[in-house]
Amino acid sequence: MTTEPIIHRFPLAHDGAFVNAYLVETSSSVVAIDSLLTVSESRTLRTAVEQLGKPLAAVLLTHSHPDHYGGLTELVADDDVPIIAPQGVIDTIVRDDPVKETILRPMFGEQWAFERRFPNTPIRDGDTVTIDEATFTVVDLGPSESPNDSPWILGADERTVFLGDQIYGRKHCYLADGFHEEWLANIELLRERFPSDAVFHIGHGGPAVPTDFVWQRTYIETFLDAVERADWSDPAHAHDAVVAAMKHFLPIDELQFLMELSIEPVASQLGLTAAV
Ligand SMILES: [Zn+2]
Fold it and tell me: Ligand 1 center to residue 204 CA distance, Å?
């Protein structure tokens, strides 16, 4: 009898969740994909590992953003386990963590861990991690939604993918790191790669399917168009115009703050305003 790994998604209450992490339960171990952001949610993730009654064997990171690595401290606790990501993801996290501290401390207070754990085990593009019957293959995308992104494929048929934030589940998106051109190119690369019945376990919402790459591309292009069309002689008005355009495209509030954080950096990157 072959056993299939079981995928558990967290937080358990999916509706309104800010960010997802996953536990993959194999015959005798647990592998975590990302770690959530807050102390309390990542502590709950840790409790879930313990309730499964199997040791945490490894943590795999899908990219370099703090809503995916900030919970490592609670998740890993005293376990001596590999936290695996491409070297570029590790370097980005180490480089940017002090800046993230200045942004996230006022937003999250004590819910942003005072001591963060960083990934400790680099892996190269295309290499695999095998835990019991589960084999994970990393795709090192380089810059994309974040400065370095690294989806993980579970199994040889490439039908189960932990895609990170390459697709958002019909929520507003973060583009402030300035790699929208690379993100759009990666979307083309990824949508060619996976079978049409692939399931994407994503960072925000989901699960998603390959046709959702079209929505993601359209969101990014709509955002870029709105920033370019706005009248930047009045920056406050321009900001409001972009928000209005994006709320017209996607009339929900979820993760709107991430989209709003992206407006001025992208306007600056496009040369529409003085550098911010
Ligand atoms: Zn995220």
Answer: 6
